[in-house]
Model the fold of this input.
Amino acid sequence: MANKRVSVLAESSTGRNLKFKDNHNKNIMSRSKFVEEIEKGNYDDYHIRVINKIKTPASNPDETKKDNLG
Done:
């Protein structure tokens, strides 16, 4: 199976993903930076959900788990 494009590096005590790593270019991103990059169209397999009024990255639903966060 191919490596996941993005991995979660840190979560809050409530389980919100806080820090992400792009496994292709090795960039480390905060939640807000990852949201910004998704909104720019740089991560086609991901979208934004608003959870408790906070923009939150999520992988697009599909049949594979290769792009799932977490």
User: Anything to note?
Assistant: The chain has a mean pLDDT of 88. Residues 8 and 20 are 5 Å apart (CA to CA). Residues 6-59 form one domain. The chain has one domain: 6-59.
